[in-house]
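Interim report, section 4.2 (structural modelling).
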Amino acid sequence: MGALSPAREPKPPQQERSRATRRKLLEAAVSCLAERGWSGSTVSVVAERAGVSRGAAQHHFRTREDLFTAAVEHVAEKRQGALKAVAPNLPPAGSVARTRIVVEEIVGLYTGPLFRAALHLWVAASDEEQLRERVTALEARVGREAHRTAVALLDADEAVPGVRETVQGLLDMARGLGLANLLTDDAARRDRVVEQWAKIIDGVLNPE
Amino acid sequence: MGALSPAREPKPPQQERSRATRRKLLEAAVSCLAERGWSGSTVSVVAERAGVSRGAAQHHFRTREDLFTAAVEHVAEKRQGALKAVAPNLPPAGSVARTRIVVEEIVGLYTGPLFRAALHLWVAASDEEQLRERVTALEARVGREAHRTAVALLDADEAVPGVRETVQGLLDMARGLGLANLLTDDAARRDRVVEQWAKIIDGVLNPE
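Predicted structure of the assembly:
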């Protein structure tokens, strides 16, 4: 087809290309952080990885802190969105089968590259003043959202005393399993812990 | 008293002074790692903090990796020793009061400077080849010992199906609570989670 063929794909509008660039940067930033840690993660390295010019990257994110906190938030939202999307396909509320799948999925949130990236950011923030406040706020937002999602998927009634803390402890355990997976592949042990804790949690949330 | 007075304190023998120097270095290394992270932690910085000459520090620890892995191991052993020492003063085995105290103490292992130091070391090890193998082995040793201590203090019978995984999940939860305490003081929320999960774990370990 000739260059002027009316059948060619229309060029995406400016705004849409800008959004796509932004998304590429955010995703490259998370994988960079997961693989190279905070000290190895700069705007330039991410721009190169995303195939974007350094200038374009800096147009989107003025500072290194902007880029990496936005990246962890973006990917966390995407992962939690995917988790919420499993809801219609879950076994009936109140069944141990459902609790088992939900516990597995929640633990899954903390064992991939996103958790590695977030962990690098948290640990860097504990030493760096200019990062600390932003990462603390980000962690609070992401943590609240994870809690809300867990409550909804487990069909847990937080008006019942102890239920809120049961779900919180589950999320803490999931984070701890993520940590245990940092240096070695902990999947086999993790599966056994998840199986047992799913039974325990089901007994608390759905007493006979 | 004169310099030759027979009543003066005897000078500690060489071996004992050497052990004391080593101990000072190990403790300074953990607090340095907890406060300044891996990138801010070198043998020189630790030697200065411990009031020891750089040469003496290097006599004890040939490399940075030697110093910091030995330090985390030393302090972890000391903490676990202190935890085991509470055993004779615990309420009777099989009581919820005992389970509560033990869960608190175990969670306490993961919320102080030692955990911050260990976390910095783990995260650095996930990026640095020469650190990774040693920290992985160290984590396995310390984790096994923590598990053994938890089983003994909880008087848990690992021959019963699910008990081993219940205790493992508790240690994972403790690690997750440590992580949640990294950027903010999470003590109030943590107390509520510990209270609820102590009840849950007691119900699993000591069914009526």
